[in-house]
Amino acid sequence: MGRREFVVVKDPLSRAYYYFSEREWSILELLDGERSLTEIVSECAKRFAPDFVSPQALLQFVADARSKGLLRGGGAPPVGAPQFAWLRNPLAIRMPGINPDALLGRVATTTQWSAAYLTSPVFWVVWLVAIAGAAMTVLVHFESFSQHVGQAASQTSLSWWLLIASVVSVTKIVHELAHAMCCKLFGGECRELGVMFLVGVPCLYCDVSDAWMIPQRWKRVLISAAGMLAELTIATFAVVAWRFLDAGVARDVCVSIIVVCSVSTLLFNGNPLLRYDGYFILSDLVGIPNLASQARQLIRNWVRRFVWALPRVGSGESERPGVPVWHRSFFVGYGLLSAAYRMLIMFTLGSIAYGWLSSYGLNQLATFLVLGLVVAVAYRMVKPLLHRPEQADANLKDAGKRQVMLVAVGAVSLVLILLVPLPRHITVPSMVQATNAKPVYVATQGQVVDAVAYQSDVSEGDVLANLVNPDMVLQLAKQTTRRNEMRAQIDGLRKQQVSRPELASQIPATADLLASVTQRCQVLQESVDELVIRSPSSGRFYPPSNLLKADQDEVRQTWAGTPLQPSNRSAFLTAGTLVGHVGHPTDREAILLVDQADITLMQIGQSVSLLLPNRSRGSVLGKVTEVSPTPIETIPREFYASELIALPSHLALQRPAAAYYQVRVELGRSAATLAVRSTSQARIRVRSASLFRRIAEALAN
């Protein structure tokens, strides 16, 4: 380990590895069952002068070694792995696996030549050049790459996600096998291979702890990094394939592999704050084995010393025999960062679980689960500090004062955490439409004769479509003929009443009948005129939702897609059919559907961000301009087609299963290129709320 040497003790039964510095190993050799504590302390003072090992530090070291089953006598606990130890870490649950060492040994024997490449500088130069070339390719074409990633992420079919899950599983299997093979080629052993649930996601794991038995540090680092190196190699080949593939499933798979095998691998496996590849690489590079456990133990000792008013360790004395004093600052920094990162992960997982359960109306269950998680984490942090050490008996008064102070600080911190308002956002479905879009409906049913093309610029009064209704035209002709006949009849009666006065009594009744027929003609003429559909305003003519045939109950529908598209010529459109919208050519607005439970949080002027799959978050922003006071009666089909709103039954096309309120949002210039009636999620920044208020709201619902 750098300039220091350690002794590694391997327990083949429990598969545990213990690391001891030369000083610690010397102390273990002094524990022969004959020397007393005083004699051992005196001998240490002679061997390690000018450093001093206190009796307290020696007792702690002996107790630690005894708890691990490394010492005999004094009723030492039995040696062996604790039962159900694989359930201790909820973030990475390891299931019992198999022993693949024999199989790996046969493979390593046939591929022994590959070890020469791992030690060849030429191989690593070529590999680094290939990785750099792939990275530069992605950076040069980053705009198209980000668009392709968005297109791949927007896939919603079950077959697509099953394919991606299979591909990712294969890459992770290669990752773990790279660790195992590299360890085997360098003389180590892989004693276990199995399945691990990493943050709930099943993946493969292999135990290459035997790498710590390899003396050369560079080999241990290479074994720890082998998985990431293998994934970066896969990502390099995926970049080459991505550049030569056309749009399709294969290209989407390639961009997914690039993201998973590069960014995801480096962020998670390369992160040294968790006990994964990056952690073991860092531990080897800085020359500190058991880095995480030593950091936690040091911080725990410092806190316990403060809580129980224990005496400070003297100058030049180590917290643990064999651990240099200069390591303390590094331990503390790493321990605090690691703890903060773990808390961040737990908070993120809790937020995801809360949002998922809340989407199904299980707010109370989500609240209790999150509170239970907080209590469990807090108890796990406080539990080691509750045990009173024997040295605390002489300072109980000072310890009591400190404990009261800590309780007070903790209570104030808890109150602040619960009561301080925190930013809050809600996510709702949204649909883009043209600003000031006015709907265009069919007023009189008829067949489509011709129409302007969608996306055409029109002026107010321009003809958008011509319909024909032969029955109505025939009725108008009949009524017009009858009207003309009655007019002629009245003229004849008026002429004849001079010679025949008795005919004068027929004129009023005939006139009333003529007025009725004339009114009927006017109504029919207006209906015939309405067969010519005109633009209600100036702007661009946009299509409505795409519909399937017979998509409406109780209505005979003879068209599909959009009503005025060329394939629907001669199709029969019923009165009230939406044929399109006329709105601004470039300005856009968004229509949000807010659930009844969140509508009270909405206010005019709130900031909104559209979460578009092919654009970065925050690139399309807007502000709320209108909040509907009543729920909407129908939901546009686009929300169902994009699965932003669940469709429990066909009747939901007419009436939504839940109460949604419409919120109108004015978008900025960045939305000018968005397709009209495209859907996505929208993130609304609502008024801040404290944790206490959020918990109360969840329980009330």
From TrEMBL:
<dbReference type="InterPro" id="IPR001193">
    <property type="entry name" value="MBTPS2"/>
</dbReference>
<feature type="transmembrane region" description="Helical">
    <location>
        <begin position="158"/>
        <end position="175"/>
    </location>
</feature>
<feature type="transmembrane region" description="Helical">
    <location>
        <begin position="248"/>
        <end position="268"/>
    </location>
</feature>
<dbReference type="GO" id="GO:0005737">
    <property type="term" value="C:cytoplasm"/>
</dbReference>
<protein>
    <submittedName>
        <fullName>Peptidase family M50</fullName>
    </submittedName>
</protein>
<dbReference type="GO" id="GO:0004222">
    <property type="term" value="F:metalloendopeptidase activity"/>
</dbReference>
<keyword id="KW-1133">Transmembrane helix</keyword>
<feature type="transmembrane region" description="Helical">
    <location>
        <begin position="122"/>
        <end position="142"/>
    </location>
</feature>
<feature type="transmembrane region" description="Helical">
    <location>
        <begin position="330"/>
        <end position="356"/>
    </location>
</feature>
<feature type="transmembrane region" description="Helical">
    <location>
        <begin position="362"/>
        <end position="382"/>
    </location>
</feature>
<feature type="transmembrane region" description="Helical">
    <location>
        <begin position="221"/>
        <end position="242"/>
    </location>
</feature>
<dbReference type="GO" id="GO:0031293">
    <property type="term" value="P:membrane protein intracellular domain proteolysis"/>
</dbReference>
<keyword id="KW-0472">Membrane</keyword>
<dbReference type="GO" id="GO:0016020">
    <property type="term" value="C:membrane"/>
</dbReference>
<keyword id="KW-0812">Transmembrane</keyword>
<feature type="transmembrane region" description="Helical">
    <location>
        <begin position="403"/>
        <end position="422"/>
    </location>
</feature>
